[in-house]
Design goal:
Layout: E1 2-6, E2 12-16, H1 25-33, H2 36-55, H3 64-69, H4 73-81, H5 91-120, H6 128-132, E3 136-143, H7 146-159, E4 164-170, E5 173-180, H8 188-208, E6 210-216, E7 221-231, E8 234-255, E9 267-278, E10 281-288, E11 293-295, E12 298-305, E13 310-320, E14 327-332, E15 336-338, E16 344-351, E17 372-378, E18 385-390, H9 398-401, E19 407-417, E20 421-427, H10 431-450, E21 454-464, E22 467-476, H11 480-496
Antiparallel strand pairs: 1-2, 3-22, 4-5, 5-21, 6-20, 7-8, 8-9, 9-10, 11-12, 12-20, 13-14, 13-19, 15-16, 16-17, 17-18, 21-22
Helix pairs in contact: 2-5, 5-8, 7-11, 8-10
């Protein structure tokens, strides 16, 4: 069975029509998964999966436990059964990504030979009838020698922006073909490469990426991060060892109002100073709220803090018990200072809500209801003794007026800071791959949509001695208005120099 098809050169050719019953199932399957329509459907499903992942909180997101507790039993059952709490690691989402990648690869392989033929073997001639049917066409009369007319058309084409011209002869007619931006026909393939690169990076992230949190206390070293994993109503803590150690040298919190609490609403910035130790040596760094740290593929973010009121430094007043001039000194956390007589004072501990009982580690003292500093006071050649420095509110209680090593102490001021900082750590092996993919995608999309492949033909037909009819025609794959302006310039240049 055959069917008549009209080609670009107005020739009638007989093309065989495939009998569906004779096409193998494998061929039909390949044709299906490489079709553009099928690829769009899969892309819509992937987008829908991403949308669900945004609307339904995922298991590895902070606050999931509270979110899960607020769901109804039916929601828990449906979401859990369909893996909607961890959709990016579900088998069906990864299968969709694989099918989408396969569709892109197969469609590229299927269409590339035709596209390459179109690029490498351009259509150099065209019938007059076909040229007149183009959106932009014109007919001009010329006199003179054929070579001169041909050269004039070539020069006009080049002056109009079509730098590459080809002259051919066929059936007694001369054809001038010119084009620009032929590479635009291949633009879909770099776009496909960009998409595949993004998908590959996303797959690396979901399969090999690691996230966790590290609690850092000044003066201590950590080399593990922990992640709370929710398996529906079951919770477990997963600990992962890092390939380096992190020593916390200092934590600091910059407040908007120093006389208020450590709340996030009153905070400008959190700063954690660390020293990373590995086989390459030591590396000092600072992790801030808007300045994460990248090291060996791991990214450190400020996550939260432990709301137990501490002091990064204190300013105290030491007053001699037997009379004399009081001395004001500032001592950093875990630091020491000397009085004029050589007495050594060590800043041992700070409490936001002081009591003689053991401190409750679960109490939120970020409002500092009853601040006090615990000191170690060591006169020259004497043993250290414990002393307390209270603020204005408690300076009159008996323990605050008790002399230690000949001095009474008062807490004048202190720099507020939490007990610990909690850093989020993310190891994302696919991040760089995704960034490269987006760069490729953006550049190629700009190239594809802001430029076009433009083609023009001139059919030169001799109607009398040194008399010629020149039929012009052309087309473009996009940006028609720009092509129209260039074609008008082309015909204008020819009309002026006829």
């Amino acid at each position: 069975m055959t069917v008549m098809e009209k080609t670009g050169t107005d020739l009638q050719v007989d093309l065989p029509v495939k009998n569906p019953s004779k096409v193998s199932f494998f061929t039909q399957f390949i044709d299906l998964i490489s079709s553009v329509r099928f690829g769009i459907i899969v892309l819509i499903l992937v987008t829908l999966g991403c949308l669900i992942g945004m609307l339904i909180m995922q298991e590895n997101v902070q606050g999931f436990e509270r979110y899960y507790a607020e769901l109804t039993p039916s929601q828990k059952m449906v979401y859990g059964t369909l893996d909607l709490f961890d959709i990016y690691h579900s088998w069906y989402f990864n299968t969709l990504l694989f099918i989408l990648s396969l569709n892109i690869v197969l469609s590229s392989i299927d269409r590339f030979p035709k596209t390459w033929t179109f690029v490498s073997k351009p259509k150099l001639d065209a019938s007059v009838k076909w040229l007149k049917r183009q959106r932009r066409s014109a007919e001009l009369e010329f006199s003179g020698e054929k070579e001169a007319v041909t050269k004039r058309i070539e020069n006009a084409a080049k002056a109009s922006g079509w730098k590459k011209t080809i002259v051919t002869e066929k059936k007694g007619k001369t054809f001038v073909f010119a084009q620009s931006g032929v590479w635009n026909r291949l633009g879909a393939y770099p776009v496909h490469i960009g998409l595949l690169t993004i998908i590959a990076g996303a797959f690396l992230t979901t399969q090999m990426g690691q996230t966790g949190q590290m609690v850092l206390t000044p003066g201590q070293t950590a080399n593990k991060m922990s992640e709370t994993v929710f398996d529906l109503d079951r919770v477990k803590e997963v600990t992962k060892v890092l390939p380096f150690e992190v020593y916390c040298s200092d934590i600091q919190q910059k407040l908007i109002k120093n006389d208020e609490s450590l709340s996030a609403m009153n905070t400008i910035d959190w700063m954690t100073r660390i020293t990373i130790k590995d086989e390459t040596g030591t590396h000092d760094a600072v992790v801030q709220m808007n300045k994460p740290l990248d090291y060996r593929g791991y990214r450190f973010f400020q996550s939260s803090f432990v709301p137990i009121g501490r002091a990064r430094s204190i300013t105290i007043r030491a007053t001699p018990a037997n009379g004399g001039t009081a001395q004001d000194i500032t001592i950093p956390r875990d630091g020491t200072a000397n009085l004029a007589d050589g007495t050594l004072i060590k800043f041992k501990e700070f409490r936001g809500n002081f009591s003689l009982a053991q401190e409750d580690p679960n109490e939120d003292t970020s409002n500092y209801p009853n601040p006090a500093a615990i000191l170690q006071v060591a006169p020259p050649n004497s043993q250290a003794q414990t002393a307390y420095a209270f603020g204005e509110k408690m300076k009159g209680i008996p323990i605050s007026e008790k002399a230690v090593a000949g001095y009474t102490f008062q807490l004048l001021n202190f720099e507020k800071v939490g007990d610990q900082h909690i850093l989020s750590i993310q190891n994302d092996p696919g991040a760089t791959v995704v960034y490269v993919g987006f760069i490729i995608l953006c550049v190629t999309l700009v190239a594809v949509f802001f430029f076009s492949h433009q083609r023009v033909w001139a059919a030169i037909e001799e109607v009398a001695d040194n008399k010629f009819i020149v039929t012009l025609g052309g087309n473009t794959n996009r940006n028609q208005s720009a092509f129209d302006e260039r074609f008008k310039l082309f015909t204008k240049n020819l009309s002026i120099h006829k």
